[in-house]
Each structure stands twice: as structure tokens, then as C-alpha cells.
Amino acid sequence: MRNFDLAPLYRATVGFDQIADMMDRVLTNDVAQPTYPPYNIEKTADDAWRISIAVAGFAEADLSVELRQGALIVAARKAEEREERTYLHRGIATRAFERRFQLADHVRVTGATHADGMLHIDLVREVPEALKPRRIAIESSGASDKDVVDAKSVN
């Protein structure tokens, strides 16, 4: 894989630091991408998405969903078990995790639900009225009735 130097991008642009940082994170191959817990991202409408994370073994109280600096952070920490158990096979991982999802501008979290070992987080993009395209009415440039002046003869 090639390594890209984004230093010229930082020098030649103003106000695009967030995009350059995101590209830098994506192109860095030194950081191993976590695979636990597994998750799905599905598109539910044109401007709506749902993130589903497999959180088997975690109770609602063990999970936290937080929005911080444009990133959705989902974390889980299992409370210590008080009773001793002897497992013959332990295949359900309940280790602590923190998963981050970088959200685009104007994307907000509308809700989170925990059911059947799955955590569902619903997202929607709401573009402010000031940023939505608007149609400008075009008026004709010809003379209208109010611009016509009646002329009287002087003779």
C-alpha cells in the first residue's frame, strides 16, 4: 500500500483541517481496525441511517452512547460478577469496548434502543433552512404600468 503525505494539503488550505484529518486517519495503515463488537450500518431512508451493534451479554446499564465533537461514541463496560462461575467453554465475549463513528455535518442521533442483544442507534440528517437550496423568482425587465408617464402637449 502507498503512503500519502498530506502536508501540502495542510499548507494550501484554510478551514479544511477536519477533512484532511479524516483522510489522514483513513489512509494510516499503522492502526489496527477493531473488529469487536460486530456492527451493521444500514440506510433506512434518503437522509436516515441505523447503526446496529451486537452487544450480547451486556445489560442496558453497561452501555453508554455519547455524542462528542462530531463523533458518536458507543462504549460498554461489564460490571464485575460477584458470584464465581466455572465455564467449560466461554464463547460470548463481554470484554469492554469503545467504538467511534465519525458523523457528517448536520447528522444527529434521534434515538437508541437495546433489544435481543442488539443496540440500535438511529441517525438522521437535518439540513438547516439557511443551507437548503431556494428558488429565486425572476421578474420581467420590461416596463410595467406604474413606470409609464402620461405626456401632455404644451401647445
UniProtKB/TrEMBL annotation:
The transmembrane segments are none
RNA-binding in keyword set? no
Report whether Kinase shows up as a keyword of the record.
no
Q: Name one Pfam family in it.
A: HSP20
| UniProt-listed Gene3D superfamilies | 2.60.40.790
Keywords, in A-Z order: Stress response
Q: Which residues form the SHSP domain?
A: 30-141
Q: Which InterPro entries match?
A: A-crystallin/Hsp20_dom (IPR002068), ACD_IbpA/B (IPR037913), HSP20-like_chaperone (IPR008978)
Q: What is stated as this protein's family in its record?
A: Belongs to the small heat shock protein (HSP20) family.
Q: Which PANTHER family match?
A: PTHR47062, SMALL HEAT SHOCK PROTEIN IBPA
Q: What is this protein called?
A: Heat-shock protein
Q: Which organism is it from?
A: Pelagivirga sediminicola
